[in-house]
Amino acid sequence: MKKTFPDAAAALEGLLFDGMTICAGGFGLCGIPERLIDAIRDSGVKGLTVVSNNAGIDNEGLGKLLRTRQIAKMISSYVGENKEFERQYLAGELQVEFCPQGTLAERCRAGGAGIPGFYTKTGVGTQVAEGKEEKVFDGETYILERGIRADLSIIKGWKADEAGNLVFRKTARNFNQPMATAGKVCVAEVEEIVPIGSLDPDGIHLPSIYVKRMIVGAPYEKKIEFRTVRTREAA
Amino acid sequence: MAWDRNQMAARAAKELRDGYYVNLGIGIPTLVANNIPEGMEVTLQSENGMLGIGPFPYDDEVDPDLINAGKQTISELASSSYFGSEQSFAMIRGGHIDLTVLGAMEVSQDGDIANWMIPGKMVKGMGGAMDLVAGVKKIIVVMEHNSKSGDPKFIPECLLPLTGKNVVDMIVTDLAVFQRPDHQSPFRLIELAPGVSAEEVAQKTTARYES
Asked: Which residues in chain B have Cβ-Cβ distances shorter than 8 Å to A153?
């Protein structure tokens, strides 16, 4: 079965519907599936619940789907650096569920691994614990968090082989790994698709079973949120 | 003379030990990285999936795929490793990180910490702060002793929504250091910034502590 599609719109064909839940990889603007986000915007699908650590920034990443009001609800850990998000949220147009970052990663990992819930210490005694079951293990209190299953996962990788085995690059891996497993279908965009046999089987970050469809999204501009540098001392 | 931001970070850095794996929060805590004692091996963790954070890159080595949790560009070390967010927080929540240094808006005398939201203001989210205070072995808070309007920040009970309950082990402010040996004991004033008196600290603190 051929997993490679000519472009993002083709790779998403038949997968999008109003009111669906989408898990999106990326941290800030690092490792975000930008071609797939553009194609979702162009499809006009709406009422989306999007599970993503961040919500992009104005006009970048998921910020594009906020601008077009296609997102009804975000499940995120941190949403700073986004004016349009702030406006919609304060106006009550956008629902937001804040979830601690580690809990969010684990909810997606668990969901993808067939685990419907798990207990964690994170958030005990805070607003996050409100309405959640508490249980004491070995004298410590834990809360029950639910695994997340989504209709679709969209992720960004570095290289894939034609079978769909995928490797990430540096900190662009982040949420792409757990998000890939949480969707019924995962569509990946990568910088390069290489022939089977060119990736070391011992070095695969995401096994092919999770990747159902993929595209080459290159060339990428790769935006930087905060460029911080040091200067070389004069020789 | 109260401690400045870098001196507060330097004081927190005295808690580092050889071989420690450490997560540093944004703001003053980041400055702890500049104060690691010579010859001591300390590995810094970045929540977005990296162990072994290197210094800021040279201008021609900036890589958009290599950032820290504050979304700043960084560099890697020969000993660095990368992993996904689920692995990153497994090591945080599983108690494998030795120490975290965080900023705070309020800390209570029972070790509660509030540092993620102010009701009525725009909520940005807790990021990884709740996971860090719940999972890391030792929690150090570095913060100004009083707010800009002069209100104490080390107080009997937090007024802001909590990030974690009964989790803080040490507080470093611009005036003093408070510590407690375990989560059942009260904080004790263990150190004063040069020229700061115990009376001044008492005057500017509403939390109960031993001195």
From this structure: none
